Amino acid sequence: MANKKRIAVAMSGGVDSSLTAALLIQQGFEVFGVTMQLKDDSAEFDDAQKVAAQLGIKHFTADFRKIFRAEIENYFVEEYLKGRTPNPCVLCNKKIKFGKLLDFAQEQGADFLATGHYARIIFEDGRFKLKKAFDLKKDQSYVLYNLTPEKLSKIILPLGEFSKTETRALAEKLNLISAHKKDSQEICFVPNDDYKSFIAARADSADALQPGEIVNTAGKVLGYHNGVANYTIGQRKGLGIAAENPLYVLKLDVENRRVIVGNNAETFSNELTAENVHWIYPPKFPARLQCKIRYGPRVSNCTVKNLGENLRVIFDEPQRAITAGQSVVFYDGKEVLGGGVITG
To answer: Does the annotation mark 89 as catalytic?
Structure first.
């Protein structure tokens, strides 16, 4: 890429996006910052504006509050009310950050959109590929599987070759005011990470929030719960049941307001099905791939079979707590090929 290409940097006011902007300025690009306004609180905007001022770049705000509530927050609530455990970051990256924000950046004359994600985009073998970050503990490629080859050609991820320690050290070296800002570990729109209160405030009369029975796989009542939506597959703590051996959530039955529990061995399964499938580059089926069934470094070997609009994934080794609503993401070595939403 030639110098003086115009790059929009998605800026949250945190160290990752701040360093992303600083590095691109150092490389000679024309950089400006864009902050997505997703809620009424202006703290992120204020922090991002301060960093932009420190770097001497223009700063824009893209007000996505209405669409974010409609597309992401409502989806989050609806999935829990169905007895599923969603990953809102996956959908936000698809529809908002690399959807609406990419469009907004291009409207401001940007040639590229850069973010602080820990993943890599490599042009190799005549095509743009999405790959894992060098720092596998920080790798965020899992939440980016909905990107397309066209979008990969317009996105820059400068931090994919750094560890978080290196990022903070570089930020300190450049005297960035965000160098010591703590990382956000919570869902950005859920206050105090209290998703139960958030859901209850949006849908206080839903079936999934009504009291019901906790039963074993034989249907025996072991106790009572205060709403199916307050539980997730594989959960052990908070069941409030005195049992000889530890019990874990196996299934959420919204229709009958039941939480089904069992022993740890029963949380393991050899396969799953997935819907809403997206391939950056589709493999030939049946495909031997690696996959992740949740965010994190663990990867499992699997065989993937095409069921038309859906997929069946068979694992070489049983997987614990396969959770409907989460994404299964497929890898060929370090490259992300695509993914889908787990149905069960």
So the answer is: no
